[in-house]
């Protein structure tokens, strides 16, 4: 049977698994994710697997890659600066609250054009105005998002705009019709903006992986995990990287379902930056056709139904002041653990922490370091450019780097754009301090916790009496918040979607084990499958809080990489049929519209078109052979005693195992 290589590039670790279709996992390894050059981490993990197995790299028949980097960037509000090209919409459409929040001040280009609800052109695309605005804005952007009115019925204006923008600026362009065939222009624009911000991250990852694999002598086809857990050829992913947005969590869900063999469960994957939860029913993760909810935004990319929160082993630990009460806050931003930073920069970390421990009064910048993460792909304001240049020399102690509020704000903007990252105290440091983890520098973690414990609360007293007490508080906070998140996910799945239910006083009392005149209980009816490198450390206690069995399967720490190789290629194509006037049935395809005089003929043409499109895209996506099914959702109304056709949505789904070499 074939030998397959799965790779997952996460926020903290890059995992690699060598998988035999008969024997299962043959070898597995982890390497630190190297954000400044992803190829180093990929090469480290893959090289370790090859060394363990002692196989000839040439016999590997398929490589499949998943990543949590895009999901992490969305949760942390990071990414490039993009311009939204809004075709046929007016200024009020750009003021929709969700879209405005997603734009975050990025520019909007309102351009004439677009179509109506029957696919007819409302006005020609204003190419002259678009070219002028694009050239003016391009130096400050990393890409464009293009959304046209009713472009899901006729995408021609989006396609024209894309070609114009590429010629005029050379920047990446994402079109809304490539993301979803569903109506709702502003929501499609929101998704387009979020995805356009991440294109350069995913392209860099694929390019780095291809280069490293070639250097290691691996010539097998490269696949990438899409947001619905299926696989797509790397060449296709390069041209449509938006489809890989939820790659990491989707691979985790597929891998968790495969490893746990639990037909019904909550699969919870704790990574460095996020915790991702998926509900398994009859052994399969549920697909959410509305798209995953990430970073507070509902996207329109079809994906596994994943709930994500910014809580992980590398969540930044900060103090949150509420009146006279000081509370620990974890995340949502990821930080490099102090214990990890000290592995490569021990002299800087230990010297800085010791200097700060000698200070009489703690400073909010103590125990924090700034690191350059990525080079800028766009022109930066002078202060930010100067700050980034200073970080090129290596990590810098924040209290030496920052002299005033303006510089602090500039550094924050660099972090938001994923050009820099902070190193500070994290739950991973707390786990090292308590001896639960031993991979990195425990002494650096201990110094960081001592420094943090000396920070003053609202009463002017040290926040924690000892570093160990602080460490237990951090781990306890992570455990409690994880249990609340599991409960929130389960309640939402059962239809209780009111915000904050898991933190309601009664839910809190249940998690606290309250028993007085009233015994309050709240528990899950399915096991909790814990995944991730730290799952064995935390999930016994987390599952215990919600009254559920904890199941941490073998290879749980590399479930994402396992999921990357056990999936298949799955592609769907949709064709819509409308009746603009009685007796005329209009079929909308990517190649244009066709009017047919009878409904049976229109549906037959729609089915054939959808099937042909799905099969062609599945083969292009890397399937060896495909099986296709077609479903028709037809809507009618009854008027004056007779049925009247309203619309039909024809969906073809093509599936197959990926092509392998040899």
Task: Name a few traits of the molecule.
662 residues, alpha/beta, six-stranded mixed beta sheet, 21 helices, 37% helix
Structure description:
37% of the residues lie in helices and 26% in strands. The protein is an alpha/beta fold. Strand 7 (143-148), helix 5 (156-169) and strand 8 form a beta-alpha-beta unit. The mean pLDDT is 89.
Rg from C-alpha positions? 26 Å
DSSP E strands, number: 31
Largest sheet: 6 strands, mixed
Oligomer: single chain
Strand line-up of the largest beta sheet: 3-2-1-4-9-10
How confident overall, as mean pLDDT? 89
First-to-last CA distance: 11 Å
Structural category: alpha/beta
Tally of helical segments: 21
Q: What shape does the CA trace take?
A: globular
As residue ranges, the low-confidence spans are none
Which band does the percent of strand residues land in? 25-35%
Helix content: 25-40%
Short description:
With 662 residues, the protein is of the alpha/beta class.
What is the topological layout?
Blueprint: E1 3-9, E2 13-20, E3 24-32, H1 38-53, E4 60-67, H2 69-75, E5 82-87, H3 97-103, E6 108-111, H4 127-137, E7 143-148, H5 156-169, E8 173-175, H6 185-196, H7 199-215, E9 222-225, E10 231-233, H8 234-239, H9 247-260, E11 265-270, E12 275-281, E13 284-285, E14 287-288, E15 293-294, E16 297-298, E17 303-304, E18 306-309, E19 315-322, E20 325-334, E21 336-337, H10 338-344, H11 346-357, E22 369-372, H12 382-391, E23 396-397, H13 398-401, H14 405-416, E24 420-424, H15 427-433, H16 442-453, H17 467-493, H18 505-511, E25 528-531, H19 535-545, E26 550-551, H20 559-566, E27 569-581, E28 584-589, E29 592-596, H21 599-620, E30 627-639, E31 642-656
Parallel strand pairs: 1-4, 4-9, 5-6, 5-7, 7-8, 11-25, 21-24, 25-26
Antiparallel strand pairs: 1-2, 2-3, 9-10, 11-12, 12-13, 12-18, 14-17, 15-16, 19-20, 22-23, 22-24, 27-28, 27-31, 28-29, 30-31
Helix pairs in contact: 1-7, 3-6, 4-5, 9-20, 10-11, 11-16, 12-14, 15-16, 15-17, 16-17, 17-19
């Amino acid at each position: 049977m074939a030998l397959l290589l799965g790779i997952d590039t996460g926020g903290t670790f890059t995992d690699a698994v060598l998988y035999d279709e008969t024997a299962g996992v043959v070898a597995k390894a982890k390497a630190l994710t190297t954000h400044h050059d992803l190829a180093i981490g990929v090469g480290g993990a893959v090289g370790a697997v090859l060394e363990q197995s002692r196989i000839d790299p040439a016999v590997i028949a398929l490589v499949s890659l998943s990543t949590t980097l895009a999901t992490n960037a969305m949760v942390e509000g990071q990414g490039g600066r993009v311009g939204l090209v809004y075709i046929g919409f007016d200024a009020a459409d750009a003021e929709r609250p969700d879209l405005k929040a997603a734009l975050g001040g990025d520019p909007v280009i309102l351009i004439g054009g677009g179509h109506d609800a029957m696919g007819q052109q409302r006005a020609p695309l204003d190419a002259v105005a678009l070219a002028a605005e694009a050239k003016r804005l391009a130096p400050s952007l990393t890409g464009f998002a293009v959304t046209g009115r009713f472009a899901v019925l006729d995408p021609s204006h989006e396609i024209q705009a894309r070609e114009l923008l590429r010629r005029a600026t050379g920047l990446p362009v994402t079109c809304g019709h490539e993301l979803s065939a569903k109506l709702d222009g502003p929501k499609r624009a929101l998704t387009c903006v979020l995805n356009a911000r991440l294109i350069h991250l995913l392209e860099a990852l694929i390019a780095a992986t291809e280069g490293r694999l070639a250097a290691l002598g691996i010539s097998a086809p490269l696949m990438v995990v899409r947001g619905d857990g299926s696989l797509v050829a790397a060449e296709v992913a390069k041209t449509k990287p938006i489809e890989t947005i939820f790659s990491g969590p989707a691979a985790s869900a597929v891998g968790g379902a495969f490893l746990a063999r639990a037909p019904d469960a909550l699969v919870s994957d704790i990574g460095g930056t996020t915790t991702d939860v998926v509900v398994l029913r009859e052994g399969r993760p549920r697909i959410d056709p509305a798209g995953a909810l990430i970073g507070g935004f509902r996207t329109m990319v079809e994906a596994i139904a994943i709930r994500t929160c910014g809580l992980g082993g590398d969540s930044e630990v900060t103090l949150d002041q509420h009146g006279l009460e000081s509370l620990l806050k974890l995340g949502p931003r990821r930080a490099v653990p102090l214990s990890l930073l000290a592995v490569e920069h021990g002299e800087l970390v230990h010297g800085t922490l010791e200097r700060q421990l000698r200070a009489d009064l703690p400073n909010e910048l103590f125990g924090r370091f700034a690191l350059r993460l990525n080079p800028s792909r766009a022109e930066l304001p002078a202060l930010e450019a100067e700050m980034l240049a200073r970080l090129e020399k290596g990590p810098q102690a924040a209290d030496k780097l920052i002299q005033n509020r303006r510089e602090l704000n500039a550094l924050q903007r660099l972090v938001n754009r994923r050009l820099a990252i902070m190193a500070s105290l994290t739950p991973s440091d707390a786990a090292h301090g308590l001896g639960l983890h031993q991979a990195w520098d425990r002494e650096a973690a201990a110094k960081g916790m001592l420094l943090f414990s000396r920070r003053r609360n609202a009463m002017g007293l040290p926040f924690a009496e000892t570093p160990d007490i602080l460490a237990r508080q951090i781990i306890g906070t992570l455990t409690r918040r994880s249990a609340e998140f599991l409960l929130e996910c389960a309640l939402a799945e059962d239809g209780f979607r009111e915000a904050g239910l898991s933190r309601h006083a009664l839910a809190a009392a249940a998690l606290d084990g309250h028993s007085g005149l009233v015994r309050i209980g709240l528990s899950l009816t399915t096991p909790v499958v814990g995944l991730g490198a730290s799952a064995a450390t935390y999930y016994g206690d987390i599952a215990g809080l919600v009254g559920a069995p904890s199941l941490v399967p073998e290879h749980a720490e590399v479930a994402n990489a396992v999921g990357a190789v056990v999936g298949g290629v799955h592609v769907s194509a949709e064709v819509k049929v409308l009746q603009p006037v009685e007796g005329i049935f209009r079929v909308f395809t990517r190649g244009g519209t066709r009017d047919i005089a009878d409904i049976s003929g229109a549906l037959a043409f729609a089915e054939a078109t959808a099937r042909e499109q799905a099969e062609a895209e599945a083969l292009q996506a890397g399937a060896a052979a495909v099986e296709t099914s077609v479903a028709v959702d037809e809507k009618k109304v009854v008027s004056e005693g007779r049925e009247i056709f309203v619309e039909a949505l024809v969906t073809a789904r093509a599936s197959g195992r990926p092509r392998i070499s040899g």
